[in-house]
Amino acid sequence: MKTLVRFPSFSLRRLGLALGVSLLTTAAAVAQAPTIYGLGTLSMASMGNPAGSQGIITINPLTGAPNTFSPAPVTGVAAGQTLVGIDSRPNTGQLFALGYDAALAAGNNTQVYVLDPATGAATAVGAAIRLELGGATDRIGFDFNPTVDRIRVVSTNDYNYRLNPNNGALVLRDGDLAYADGSPADAGIGAVAYTNSYAGSTATTLYDFDELNGGILAVQNPPNNGVLVTEQTVMFGMFGVGSVRAIDFDVYYNAATQQNEAYLTEVTGGGSSNLYSFNLATGQATLLGNTIPSVIPFEIRDIAAAIAPLTQPALTGQLIYAVAGGNLISFDSANPTIIRSAVNYGGGLTAGQAVVGFDFRPATGQLVTLGYNAATGESRLYTVNLTTGALTAIGAGPITLNLGPATGRVGIDFNPTVDRLRVVGTSGFNYRLNPNDGTITGTDGNLNPAGPIIGAAAYTNNASAANTTVLYDYDAAAGQLYIQNPPNNGTLVAQGSPSGLAASTDGADFDIFNTPGTTANAAFLALSPGGSPTTPSFDNLYGVDLGTGALSVLGRIGNGSNVSGLASFIAQGTGLTWNGSASPDWAAAANWTPNRTPTTTDDVTIPGGAPNQPTISGSQAARFVALGSGATLTSADASTLTVGGNFTNNGGTVAGAGSGTIVLTGIAAQTLGGAGTSAFQNLTVGPAGAVVGAANLLPAASAAVRRVLLLNGTLTVPAGQTLTLLSDAQNSAHVVNAAGSVVGNATVQRYITSANTGPGYRHYSSPVAATTVADLSTAGFSPVVNPAYNTAPVPATVTPFPTVFSYDETRVNTSGNPAPQDFDKGFVSPGSLGDVLEPGRGYTVNIAGTQTVDFVGTLNNGNTTRGGLSRGTQAESGWHLLGNPYPSPIDWDLVGRTSVDATVYVFRSSGQFAGTYSSYNTTAGTGTNGGTDQVAVGQGFFVRSSTAGTDGALAFTNAARLTAYANPVFQRPAGTSPLVRLDLRAAAGSADETVVYFEQGATTGFDSALDAYKLVAGGTPVLATPAGTERLSINSLPALGAADVLVPLLVDGPQAGTYTLRATELLNLPAGTYAYLRDAQTGTVTDLTAQPSYSFALTPGAAAGRVSLQLTQPRILANAPAALRRQVSIFPNPARGSVSIGLPASLARQTADVTLVNTLGQAVLRATLPTAATEVRTLALPDVAQGVYTLRLQTASGIVNKRLVVE
Hints:
The protein is mainly beta. 3% of the residues lie in helices and 43% in strands.
């Protein structure tokens, strides 16, 4: 490492005295002139400083004099190296230098440095490399190519290199320097300089100075070939170059005058350093002044015009990126002349390809570019690093596109609604590409009509999470704006009139900026009026009125650029990625990278491999949400996640509990996309609406809901995409049409909630329009229909036997058969599997309880009326199998009824052909067998028209639909009427239920508004009460008074055995009123308050009149104690004509009522035994038939029953 010191003070004083006057007299001019850096080298040892020591000075470009009294000594250069060239980097304004060790025979001898001109400190860029630049006497040229941000290095030994200023590496050794005409035979180029050295430059010329052949100025074109042309002899005034020690020059671009200004430094044979202005067109050098006199051995062998670093003032417009030559630049649309950033662009591009356009991807915020080889058609998508300009290939390999010749123009832009890249161009092609894998999504219809020359395209709404967009195209030759609609058809529709600008066959670049979170769009156009590919002029930036196509100039781009590609930066929300390092808590900042909780402006990604997959609790927010393969997002009960953008599931799982909800709040329609199924616990669609995937998108998008789908806006399901309302043992989804609806087909599942998992009849009703009987098919069930059933004399014998029936009450007649045989005659088979399942109509299906039926079609919404509900005169007439027509539960209390009873009946299967009906009466507000006012999604039910000869009707409206999740245990509030609910249960567990209640205005007959019939399906116990000839499941009776009420109970069992009659509810009985069960056969009286259940033996068909419910104000004594019962005797037994009753002393002193009851529970004899001194009483049995009886004594100590046989 060299150690340099400042020059002796006496030398600096002499230098300062010589230059002082000049500095003072030109101060004002210097403030506006460029800064020239001079690299000085000691030609001999001086005052303790060895020969070869180097320093940096600044030079006054007007006088040639130095601006400083003391050079900044160069430090940091590797031992053995000497700085052989300096230049300013246009993209950054930094001063670069090249160190070279001419004496190093092997190994890396060259190093690129960044040089601080104020201190002289040199900082190495990357590692040292090896270049063959000749010996110590060879002169070396070093300069930046502003169009590609690469360094040109040449030598008088004819070598020609390109270096990368980012890492100091060798890009390529290009063709050796040589004159095109072969004369001189050996070029001696020792200095080079490019014109237009500013960020964003797209055109430049490389000038070479030949120091060994009498001073020739040549143009190196092509630079990479090393060919020297356009030779000029350099003249210093009237004289040639002569014998000099060194010459270097540089070109400064004056932005104010938009001119290139060249400066040349000469080290004379005597050792003085002079500065010249240099005319590149003529080779004429004009002396500006002496920089260093010969008495000071400090030779200025290299110079560099300073370039101001780029600045980033506050944005007042939109940030726009463009490609300028080989650089990626950015600028403010409100001040496009100021280039804010510039980096070399295209590293990583496949050899032979050229980048033909780019756009920011709305879904990710990445800049995506397209590479194209015009000779082979090989093409590939790449992502662009905005910091380095490097490209990273997308997908497994290239694709083949026909984008026309290299001179053609290509427009690419992202469709934000489907995340696909549109590619159009002047050759009329029209492609869609997939940015995920770089493949071709579609080769669409060519642009038409054929006249327009389209070279630029842009979509609207690219940063608003919108699902609506318009594709605009621009024809620069005609100055005409078009709408491409439909985009896939390539149809062009002129928008407004031509701009009136001069035609630009060089093409235009076009993009649309969308204000984030809105649908406000601003269009921009980069265009050089009159430009052509061979003679381009510089681009202006224009604003474009998308309504009229009118242009308004916003300013020149940079100092002069002809850009290709234009992309408005999408102000993406901050990207947050789940790391799960702390817990599953979504709200914990430590679980996210970077370390903070997402907000409404953040786009979140949840990778599948992260630990502690997130659970949402409380109220959280995000903009875009993306789930990776294997990821799981869970919404806890009572949680809310508001999502302002698209929700994308690429193979993850969406889980939830309770009321956990995803709420879509975008200002434009949001997309529910990705290849995975997003099964939301609850989903709320905002007023702007949402879309599941996109039409015919592959792979198809799939969304599902477990509980509530609340529609405040439209949810669109395009062709090929799926929306499913899920149903399982825990949840069944339903739709709330608040201010929106579902457009397109949906699938509604209906899980069977039943203790019977085997085959059995289930009553269904379709919640979708126009689906058919075939839609009842499942993976394990195929519906069977047979219209022959409908006309067969013995329908039960038809083959195949149908498994699907509707109901026609006009088929019912009276056969005299026991119920439900007459009732069953109303069932009718559909004619074919293609018969439509009518909305509001019910169908009974014999299907296993393990099957889940789904209905596919357009969800029913709005009013549905089932009229013409007739009632014949037969005993079982008037029944109609109808159903809930909506994809949501309904409240039976809110269904409109005309001449239809107030009760709804729902069948509950308990076997293949067995089951019970639950009933619910809206007036009573009560039901049996679990019946409530809520009718489930897909549920069929029976109703009965009230009056023979008068048609009834049911009117379903959205007002009857539930707007909150229907909890399975939900019950309406308890009524106030006195009520007794009884159930009869077999030992095997099957049961039936009846209700008796007392209501003002009720009668002892059937009351249409208050009572419910008993529908019997068979195979289960039956419990009912009579009302004339009708059997009732819900029986309203007149209001209770002081008189006793005795209600016979109709009890029956499918087989003999022990049954239990149980009071499950005793509600609102007046004070002092008691409920008892009486068994006339056994004489048992059961106080239902003290003992709510009673078990007894039952034989089918043998219990008529046996059991009754008694409501009374006087208390009835219960059975006497067993010890007392044993002290009572009857004899003889069997008896004939009379019987003696032996009483204990405690009973003999009291009167006792005695009743003789037959086996049917009928009293055949009543008497009162008087008090007596003896303990034996005689009871006459006049006209009592032979048989077995129960002799019942009612005493003050309780009831005593004794078995008596009468002969």
